[in-house]
Amino acid sequence: NVGHCHPEVVEAIKKQAEKVIHLMDHIGYYQPYVNLVEKVNGLLPEGFKDAAAFLVNGGSEAVEVAIKLARMVTGRPIILSFLGAFHGRTMGALSVTASNMIYKVGLGGLFTGVHHVPFPFDPDRKKEDLTKESLGFMRTLLSTAVHPDDVAAVIIEPIQGESGYRIPPDDFLPKLRELCDEFGFLLIFDEIQTGFGRTGKMFALEHWGVEPDVICLAKAFGGGLPLSAMFAKQELNQKWRPAAHGSTFGGNPLAIAASSTSIDIILRDNLVENSREMGNYLVELIEKERNRVSAIGEVRGKGLMIAVDILDKDGKPFGNCKDILYGAAEKGLVLSTCGTNSIRICPPLIINKSQVEEGVKILVEAIAEIVG
What we know:
The protein has 2 domains: 7-268, 3-Layer(aba) Sandwich (Aspartate Aminotransferase, domain 2), CATH 3.40.640.10; 271-370, Aspartate Aminotransferase, domain 1. Helices cover 38% and strands 15% of the residues.
């Protein structure tokens, strides 16, 4: 989020490498590990002020730890997830993933005890109907196929990433929190893509004022190095059995140095605010082009987590968005796709107005050239 090879992050890594490169945190006491956890605790909701964290290496691993914790401390075997979710590609994380069947080909032996429910997103329908439908489906599931006493947790991305930057209705996450409280389920937020300013808030959960029980972090958390974490409220962490989990390289000194410095930069340079301002400006510029370029469909997002739907000449989803990526790349702009027909825009939070303008210009040119 602070850009490629930020000089302060590079310097922090160099200094740390001259002291110690590797140690195993669950064997001894490493003060920078504790300092980083406390720094993040100070940014999380009130219920996480004394939270404990388990630092690991990648997003999938953080999700694995969260699932393991939920099952272990509740004594319940089932996890509820959402259609369209992406939580990773390791066996447990993949079990709660439902964004694309290509990830699961030949892997019918993923672990049992996972059920998926509809995620409330459809631009063509009323948002209040989507909330009712999703939660209604979940209640039907709990009264017909899954006993509530067997459910350990619900895991959700506050904004679905891989499936197209899909934002739920404003009332959904608060009502999901209420449902979890009603039945005694833990609520796990996967903020791996959305955390550390990406959505114009430090964490996406702030958009809805919802406090989960467990939070998974990765990607920007590491400042460019492999680092992820599961943060859980203290009362949950106290229920871990000794040696219940471990990691040889999780929370290694180099990654902790990069992470801590990166977070300091985000706070000092007001990059969360810049994400919100530049994201709004970016959306504004693309929206202005919709009247001129009919291939531009819905533009949605929060902060600098933005998706642009691409339509063909008949107004239907365009099936070759990768061609647009190649066209943009030839002009010097790196993009990726998400969902079935969306261009994913998620630049570093240090981006400025002139860079936004240049990027939008290239993107629109590429869309017009490829789609017409």
